[in-house]
Amino acid sequence: MAPAFIPATPLSNARAAAFPSATCVSPRRAFFGAAPALRVQSAVRAAAHPRRAAPRAAAVTTDNWVKAPGAENSHHHADAKIAANVSQAMDVKRITRPVIIGVAADSGCGKSTFLRRVTSIFGTEVSKSHTPVGEFITVICLDDYHTHDRMGRREAKVTALDERANNFDLMASQIQALKEGKSIMKPIYNHETGEIDPPELVEPNHLVVIEGLHPMYDERVRDVLDFTVYLDLADEVKVAWKIQRDMAERGHTLDNILASIESRKPDFEKFVDPQKKNCDVVMEILPTELIPDDTEKKVLRVRLLQDENCTHLEPVFLYDEGSTIDWVPCGRKLTCSYPGIKFHYGPDTYYDKPVSVFEVDGGFEKLEEMVYVETHIERSGTKFFGEITQSLLRNPTAPGSKNGTGLVQVLMAMMMRNVYEKVTGKKVSVSSS
Ligand SMILES: Nc1ncnc2c1ncn2[C@@H]1O[C@H](COP(=O)(O)OP(=O)(O)OP(=O)(O)O)[C@@H](O)[C@H]1O
Ligand SMILES: O=C(CO)[C@H](O)[C@H](O)COP(=O)(O)O
């Protein structure tokens, strides 16, 4: 029998503007780029359909489930469980084995923007719910494993980045369970209220992405991951993006934004940043080198660092694998206005390990011309001629579509698709129209 469909936990209302020190937005809200209208709509829907508003726990029978190891670590997590048996969803959806991918970054560093590109490359959609779920992919935000609610963190005098503020025992047991094909009752950290809501049902899926501050922090969780991605923003870029988002869209003051970034820095450096050392791919976003003394930080230099020894990764390259290449296709091949665009590819070392670097500095004047560049990017895993260009053209106004950030995000999304295909031996079919 097919498992009963459990309504997804609805999006909660706007995160309180009353917490000006908060630097991140609800990943779900950002994931769908939800305008206030959407949030209101979702609240109205919930009111009109009370079942939607009910906690997911109410719809599931978990009598023969077991308490998840780690649930005892926090009174907020007491109801976190793991199914005793493999989920029927495995059979019903013909899941070979769930592929689990980690995406790590600080808050506001473009995880949601990247994950929208991922779903687009997989040709799939996800629900507008606390945990986005689709036929193929589920995206779990690891903020849900915060040990304390917002008030509790204040009392304990810890930031959300601190290891003590996260229940890694529970995270490890539940992500491991999903990989084994078992459903879980996962806690919910509610960014709107700062509270921990009753747990929700999450079933195994073909692809499960775990995103947030610490997907690779705990060895037990890291060992479960099939592929790991780290989004690494230079401080100047982080500040510029924060200013753009939090000042323009949320009415925060500049001083407030800067103070918040500064206050997170020590714990960011201690608990989040070190994860990048062991990642399969790292996307560095840096200020351009094409404009001397650039102050605007709108033109970006992007470096994709690909671990040469990663089991499932075949690094992309320009022209000739292993060579060092600097390429400026501006002129007859590409329309470029100042400062133009420059590509670089070559071997390098990153924390003592060999990596291939694919780098793009600057932007595209005409996105359609990207197809010329695409013909020179080798082993990108495209399924048809022009797939990268088509993917960027599908949403030309998305952040980064006209510069290297969008291009590198699409390349990383294709790597994730390759990893999925390698691990499962199944092909993902996509449409070229
Ligand atoms: N490639 C890009 N170029 C320019 N701006 C970008 C790019 N990617 C993301 N941004 C901007 O940065 C901000 C944060 O992006 P996003 O919401 O994707 O980050 P996030 O890591 O999911 O944030 P949070 O953890 O706070 O939810 C947004 O305002 C977005 O428009
Ligand atoms: O770094 C973060 C990741 O999103 C948040 O700051 C953390 O999850 C705490 O959330 P909030 O500020 O809403 O209490």
Task: Write a concise keyword list for the protein shown above.
433 residues, alpha/beta, Rossmann fold, 4-stranded antiparallel beta sheet, 15 strands, globular, disordered N terminus, binds adenosine-5'-triphosphate, binds ribulose-5-phosphate, transit peptide, photosynthesis, chloroplast
Averaged pLDDT: 86
* Beta-strand content: 15-25%
- What helical percentage do the residues reach? 25-40%
Per CATH, what is the topology of the largest domain? Rossmann fold
Q: Which class of secondary structure composition applies to the elements?
A: alpha/beta
Gyration radius (Cα, Å) is: 21 Å
Order of helices and strands: HHHEEHEHEHHEEEHEHHEEEEEEHEHH
Q: What are the bound molecules?
A: adenosine-5'-triphosphate, ribulose-5-phosphate
The backbone outline, from C-alpha atoms, is globular
Span between termini: 36 Å
Give the tally of β-strands. 15
CATH architecture classification of the largest domain: 3-Layer(aba) Sandwich
Largest pleated sheet? 9 strands, mixed
Return residue spans where pLDDT drops below 50 for at least 5 consecutive residues: 1-58
Give the total of domains.
2
In which order are the strands of the major sheet placed? Answer: 4-7-3-8-9-10-14-13-12
Number of helices: 13
The CATH class of the largest domain: Alpha Beta
Outline:
By secondary structure, this protein is an alpha/beta fold.
